[in-house]
Amino acid sequence: MYERKIQPTLNCGLDLVGEVIYGKWKIRLLWFIHEGHQRPSELQRKIPDASRRVLSSQLKELEDHELISKVIYPVVPPKVEYSLTDFGKTLIPVIAALGNWGDAHEERLRSIILKRPHHLSTP
Predict the structure, then answer these.
(1) Which of 60, 79, 61, 82 shows the shortest CA–CA distance to 70?
(2) What are phi and psi of 35, to 5 degrees?
(3) Angle between helical axes of 13-21 and 26-34 (0-180°, round to 10)
(4) Can you spell out the DSSP letters for the chain?
(5) pTM for this prediction
(6) Domains and CATH numbers, the chain
(7) Closest CA to 64 of 120, 21, 31, 15
(8) Percent of the chain predicted with pLDDT > 90
(9) Does the structure show a pLDDT above 70 at 2?
C-alpha cells in the first residue's frame, strides 16, 4: 500500500477539498455515480480515456474519503455497485456549479487551454 512521505497541508477548506476530490477523474466519477452509473464497467464506458487501474484507484480513494460506498453482491461473477453517501451527495451542488461555470465560459476556456504548448500537435 502506498504511504505518503510528506503529510498533506490541511490549513483551510480548500486544502481539505483538494485532498479529497483532486484527481483527474474524481469529479466526473462522482457526477456519473450521481447520474446512476453505478457499475465499474458503466463508469469505464463513460470515461474511456481512463485506464481501469486508475479508475479503480480513484474510486477507492473516494470510498476511503467516505464520498461513495461500494457494495459487492455475492454472485458469480461478483457484481459491484457504487453509490454516493449522504456526505458525497453534499458535493453535487458544488460540482454542478463548477460545470455551469465551465459551460458559461466554454469558448474562452477552450481557447486558453488549446493555446498551451502541450496541447499543440507537432507538424
Answers:
(1) 82
(2) -75, -5
(3) 80
(4) ----SSPPP--SHHHHHHHHH-STTHHHHHHHHHTT--SHHHHHHH-TTS-HHHHHHHHHHHHHTTSEEEEEESSSS-EEEEEE-HHHHTTHHHHHHHHHHHHHTHHHHHHHHHHSGGGSPP-
(5) 0.84
(6) 13-119 (1.10.10.10)
(7) 21
(8) 72
(9) no
CA 13 to chain centre: 18
β-bridge mates for residue 80, sequence order: 72
Partners of residue 69 on adjacent β-strands: 83
Q: Identify the DSSP state of 6.
A: S
Which residue carries 481557447 as its cell? 111
C-alpha cell at 82: 457504487
* Residue 63 banded pLDDT, cuts 50, 70, 90: very high
* 32 vs 27: CA distance, rounded Å: 9
Distances (CA, A) of 26 to 33, 51, 103: 11, 13, 19
Q: What angle do CA 7, 62, 73 make, to 5 degrees?
A: 140
Q: What is the pLDDT of residues 75-112, one digit of tens each?
A: 998 899 999 999 999 999 999 999 999 999 999 999 99
